[in-house]
Amino acid sequence: MMSSEVFSANTTADGGIDWAEKRYLIIDDFVGIRQLLRESLRNLGAKHIDQASSGGEAMVLLSKTRYDVVLCDYNLGDGKNGQQVLEEARIRNLMLPSSVWLMVSAEKSVESVMGAAEHQPDAYIIKPITEGVLLTRLNRVWIKKQVFSEIDQAFADKDYLRAAKLCQDQVAHHPLHAIDLLRMKATLLLKAGETEQAGVVYEQVLQDRDYNWARCGLGKIRMAAGDLEAARMMFQAVIADNRFYIDAFDQLAQSFQLQGKTEESFDVLQKAAKLSPNSVPRQRSLGQTALKLGNIPVAEKAFRKCIEIGEFSVRKTVDAYLGLARVCGQKNDTKEAIRLLNAAVHQFGGDQVTLRAKITEGLVYHESGDFRRARKSGDELEAMLADDVRQRPDTETCLDMATLLFAVGVKEAPVHLLQYVTRNNHDNTVLLDDVQKIFDRARMSDEGAELIKEARMEAAEMMNRGVLLWKTGKLAEAIDWMRTARRALPHNMRILFNSAQIIISALQQNGYERGLADEAIGVLMHVDAIAPGQQRFAQLMEQLAMLAPVSGVVAAAAASEYEAANGPVPESTRFTSS
Amino acid sequence: MDEQASQQQEGSPELFMFLASTVHDMKNSISVLSGTLENLLSAHQSSAAPEYGQMAQMLYQTKRLNDNLIQLLALYKDVGKPGYPFDPAPRSMRELVELVAGQAHMLLQSRGIAFEVDYPQDAIWTLDEDLVIGVLVHAINNAVRYTRDRIRLTIAVDGDYLELRVEDNGVGFPANMLESGASAKAAINFLSNSSGLGLYFSSEVAKMHKHRQRSGSIALENGGALGGGCFVLRLP
């Protein structure tokens, strides 16, 4: 159908959204632009308009008021840039689910097509912005938000499978958003551990056009499945087509890393860091890879940059300080290394950081040949571990610790540590091989193998007892026993999953009970924090949601409780998709 | 970054640094200029006042500045090469027309030029919206200079291509421009005058749009529905 009309700027083709009653925040360091935007918004009828001239000012306002619309310039002079303001606002939950974030920039932004940012604005707008353009973009984003609102809610509730089904239902009704819906569906399927189905969606999209995100998505799936060569080729093909698609660089570096090709990985990371230097995780990877290769100047530069950009970012990481301390150790400047480690403990605090700083201290002394001090660090570590009040660190830290303790000549503490790791991961054969290797290096091969076997038995027996109670219909006892098992093995995924499964069975048989449901959610959130993207997690969440609507608030609270108690989950364990 | 680009950068790293940082500043100034002019023009009820015409002329000049800046920036960022942040996505033609009209509206009204649009209401096409809007707005600003009093933007699906046309009722393009067609090579021939940059930019944008071994193109014609110059952008 063709139409012929003379355009008038007042035409809105939407369902008549009332932009007058919304709360607006304008963030721009240029006063003239702020005034212009305010004028445009007033012409749309807006009454509540706040302004900020810097990222810091914006954060203060954002924490006081829940804005419906944020217009934020990407370049804000010194301090945070627009992307960092957005990230912090999202991570600190300062926005409503319905809030619209428009990123304004002077030129076509590389960020918009990089595919790397975890937190994306709803749209990018290029200056100059006329009123008509602003209205069109606001309406467009609003309509898209409507299309995605139920999906976003299910996503927030971590009911990934239902959210993926909702995406599929919407595709037919919204041809304009079909591609975005499919992209979201694939992301959700990955989160639900349904990699094969996610792959089907990516393939389907690629039939239509060579979208970079779909090619990268397939690459990630191949990589997770261990087909590293195929993954490498896919990432390289994306880069050949689009040298700004930074996500492909990061993934390519990861695939080289997994192939044990540290030098190739290092090359790619250097290129990526040159293209887009302001990413904390990227600079961290570059520093750690350079350290592995003994390239001290690059490692130092990367870790320093990492600290510098982390200063204004919620992604600030202690790893940069620990890495830089190692660098100083390699340069025989142990004094500076110790100063950095103290700064890290002071800035980040918490048991995890204290332990990891102590490990690094031991390593620095050990590598500089000061064996007496290294041994002293080992003894101090042992004392920390003996203190039961402290949280046990994550698996990776435990292995590092055991390695160091053996190296400096401590024996009992690392053995206990490795037993603890084994009990909590009794069916993870890859990890148990690593544990065995640490025993091998400590010249305890046979003894180690025996210890691993015992620890595995112990965990299996604990679990089997719970399952047996459940299968013989003693549900209340089974639930109770699993609580005991969880206390003994707080990080054992199998035990956590079965514990949730037994509670859900009880709810299905005896009817819904709020307290038990919340307990199951808490357990599942804990698993999701340790190891995101598990198939069983998604399935159990779906079963729970069928019993009664899971409130996102409960889920979020459980997740943040976990993080508050245990510190943020290290990113290296995450299989994220964008 | 490949060898060639890094050599280029090494040639004058200061220039590149200043370019990148100054652009934001220039854009802010232009935004304030054009925004303020548009607000002033829309507040003026009577277009009979002598300063109204002068403001309209200033707005036209500001738009030209902005066009040139957009194009230079895109070229600086290697538009047409794998290094450019090219971002195709499915877009509604209704919204595309709305966005182009939203940018051109005040300029056209202040110059007393009637603007007509004709497009398939429900069509969706995959394209890089920012780049295509840049090309169309530039074509409209160019037509403002040559038209008598009418400009027409039409979009139509033609087989495997989307055809976007900007037409006016002026005297049309000079023969030498039509003959050499609107290739990038031809654009170089016009480097001595103002049409070179715009044509070159537009043809690079067209070429970036590829689908199943086909790519976009631009063309200049005379005639069309209004009998004047026509700028044509075809996208696969």
From TrEMBL, chain B:
EC main group: transferase
Catalytic activity of the protein: ATP + protein L-histidine = ADP + protein N-phospho-L-histidine
Entry's EC annotation: 2.7.13.3
Domain Histidine kinase: 21-236
Keywords assigned by UniProt, alphabetized: ATP-binding, Kinase, Nucleotide-binding, Transferase, Two-component regulatory system
Keyword Lipid biosynthesis among record annotations: no
InterPro entries per UniProt: BphY/WalK/GraS-like, HATPase_C_sf, HATPase_dom, His_kinase_dom
MF GO annotations: kinase activity
Protein name, as recorded: histidine kinase
Lineage: Bacteria, Pseudomonadati, Pseudomonadota, Betaproteobacteria, Burkholderiales
